[in-house]
């Protein structure tokens, strides 16, 4: 079963309804675009672009899938070039063409190709944006090298939501836990060192590494409100427990946090998340 067939199949199975909705795989392509455009992830993505590339006008979106990010970036006024190897009208380039026509966007071009073979002229784009695609690279160093090559000097490579593993055992666990890998077998992941070394060898300077709990870009569909609520509840639990041991000293700022570390709090330990996602901002030197 390929990726296109996998998505068609899970749309028909009620047990995957939440996954279809949360991953923007609905058959209604415009609904996916609308929901992604209203998401905390997209809002945070725009903040990153505003912070690290405030004057950017041109964006190359690599591995664009069904176009939820490409369309929304174009609607925000960026000139967007799309690279997506899958021709599918469900989750690939034809889906994006359908959306481009529906939104009547003339600031977008769509190409069917792999990132390792994009072939654009060097120094063409202000931003290269890659959402959930770098970890699919069949040659990671070539993938990143091509991204760097087509960036203008000073331009940024923004890669978001890429799976990170610690070692081969961790990767095996991630693949076993992934809900769709058993259907199409196309999942993959790399270590943080492999991602960062590929960027360094491509002449990119790492500006920011966002680990799983650093940004809603990574931890969606968990919301920031939920994360902060969990943290507050946990701190109150530790403070209450610590008061029974040391009395008023438990109210000293930081005491409850340190107590949580001492007893090995693991609620926010990303090691408990198979294939936790990271994002990177790097700049062409």
TrEMBL record:
The keyword Translocase does not apply. One of its GO terms (biological process) is methylation. InterPro entries: SAM-dependent_MTases_sf. The keyword Lyase does not apply. CDD domains: AdoMet_MTases. It holds the Pfam family Methyltransf_23. This is Class I SAM-dependent methyltransferase. It comes from Dyadobacter sandarakinus.
